[in-house]
Amino acid sequence: MHRSLLVFILALVCCNSVSAEPLKVGFVYLSPAQDAGWTYSHEKARQYVQQQLGDKVKTTYVENVNEGSDAERVIYKLAASGNKLIFTTSFGFMNPTFKVAKRFKKVKFEHATGYKTASNMGVYNARPYQGRYLTGLIAGKMTKTNVLGYIATFPIPEVIRGINAFTKGVRETNPKAIVKVVWLSSWYDPAKEREAAETLILQGADILSTHADSPTTVQTAEEKGIYAFGYHSDMSKYGPHAQLTAVVHNWDHLYLNMVKAVLDNSWKPENLWYGLKQGVTQLAPFNAAVPKNVQALVNQAKQQIIDGKKRVFDGPIYNQQGQLAVAAGETVSDKDLLVMDWYVQGIEGKIPSN
What we know:
By secondary structure, the protein is an alpha/beta fold. The protein has two domains: 19-126, 3-Layer(aba) Sandwich (Rossmann fold), CATH 3.40.50; 128-248 and 281-348, Rossmann fold (3-Layer(aba) Sandwich). 40% of the residues lie in helices and 20% in strands. Strand 1, helix 2 and strand 2 form a beta-alpha-beta unit. Mean pLDDT is 94; it is low at 5-18.
């Protein structure tokens, strides 16, 4: 064989063996991957990335990971086993991710809903409060009892923003309505979610909203003959009559772009907060029970938010005590939204201290 041809063949084999090595990407989930809630939305995006990039990537996930030391162990193991990009998808994973990132400088980390960054760690989040505001407009229009129920998880700014945005929408279309809140102290506990939903129904709520990770609220509303809003994903199959719409997270393109950036060496740590405009926050299709004029009202408000003509927390806004918190012509900045720890007017109950 001619020497130059032999060199060419060897080079070709070498290049192919290098290019065939896929990028290993790991995902860490708080709850079951098929829970139809928060984790399910991330799992759908993982599958989308795998489908789009094929043998360029090899994705894997670990589900039901407790926040704290267990999370640190799982994240460390993923980094040590060759994953070059790791997504950690719960607020409580922030500190464990940050610790592991310090030890694996060549690994890229992306953390959902947090605020700590490093040279190899970025953060990203959705703006579901925008969708919650829109569902509040619907709730205010459709309630018969003027009592809405909200199932909350932990008293962190993300959850409080959602309650406030929902209530603001409710009060804009129905100033007489109130929102009652039950706290779970858990992200995922179907038994507690059912108990909370039933409690709110007994207190007169005829429409429910939830921040929890399972479809239990929608299922309970279906059984009790009232309405509800799904969260994280379209939960209409769990309550075809009950679900009026759902606030949906769509991480598909965000995740795909992050993985592509690692593949082409353009990745850099960022602090991304995407909403309706970027399509990360979406609304599921309306139930036929939502009147056409209400659908039109919601679609108009949605487009105004997308176009930048309207922000959910534009003033005037009064706090729970009836004091002016945000004047007309002003708005709550992103910086203040990230530390929101107060209720708007129209909410019954107190924010837990822990």
